[in-house]
Amino acid sequence: MSENKEAKEIVKTTVRIIPRLDVKGPNLIKGMSFDGWRVLGTPEFFARKYNEAGADELIYQDSAASLFQREPMLDVISRTARETSVPLTVVGGIRRVEDIRKILKAGADKVAINTAAIRNPELVRDARRVFGAQCIALSIEAQRDRCGNYECFVDYGRQRTGVFALEWAQRAVELGAGEILLTSIDREGTGEGFDLELTKLIADAVPVPVIACGGAGKAKDFSEAINVGHADAVSAASVFHYNYAEQVDSMWMQLNEPRLRSGENLDSGNIDFLNFGYGGLRDVPVEPISIPEVKNYLAEEGIPIRRDKNAPEYLAAE
Questions:
Q1: Which residues of 258-285 are buried (b: 16+ CB within 10 A; e: fewer)?
Q2: What is the distance between the alpha carbons of residues 301 and 305, in angstroms, rounded to a whole number?
Q3: Crossing angle for the helix pair 165-175 and 122-131, to the nearest 10 degrees
Q4: Which domain holds residue 22?
Q5: Into how many domains does the chain fold?
Q6: What is the pTM assigned to this prediction?
Q7: Model confidence over 224-274: pLDDT tens digits?
Q8: What CATH number does the domain containing 287 carry?
């Protein structure tokens, strides 16, 4: 075990479970390897459900802000911050220190920077000086190349950079990043489990917390990310989204479907599966699961987790 990992073990107390919500315009979307999106509903609805279910944090990732040079989604951030009580991290559309200031003022607790940080690494140092390392995370979207190296991508997994994930993670921490959000593009949305080699490579090389993201398909994947990949926190989307999608009111969906499918931002999507329950989830490669179920599984595996004692599913499990 590396010195960095030993130092982290001393201070680690609990593992965080963090739903990730990919947002495009007014919609919550989900795809596979950052492509093939389907619209699931609004991010605010799912954020409220995750807050009630005992999520430790939430991640909002704007899928188009960096690519199209859009401003951060301040209205969505503000509404979510008012209606939830857990920390909120925002990814996407951050190009300068002033963007971070606006996002934090809107109610977010942290930002995670990818595209702008690779193009201008000094942004990480400047942001840390102004807001502190606790507010600044580095987002790494990595894909394995033919030689076995992990290359960083930007613009929501669209553009190659020629930058290797390991070296970039270490440099960004030296510049002041206080956390790393690590997403495997190859595994994202597949339900095949986290890229444990990538996760362990980064987690063992840096002294800051690493959030594993991309690939969760069942409860066991979470424990492997922690025990094998040495992640400090685990983030997931599909396994949670397709569980809580059941709770979307059918009348609400009928009233809002035109807006969600082709509304203010002319976004397209496929939400017909919501009208057919899990019979319509034929193409979803995950086993939908709730946040309490994941936490109960991890607790049984001896992994320390945070519990929301007010959640009925936790009380039933005790």
A1: eebeeeeeebebebebbeeeeeebeebe
A2: 11
A3: 40
A4: 3-317
A5: 1
A6: 0.85
A7: 999 999 999 999 998 998 888 766 554 444 445 544 444 443 333 444 444
A8: 3.20.20.70
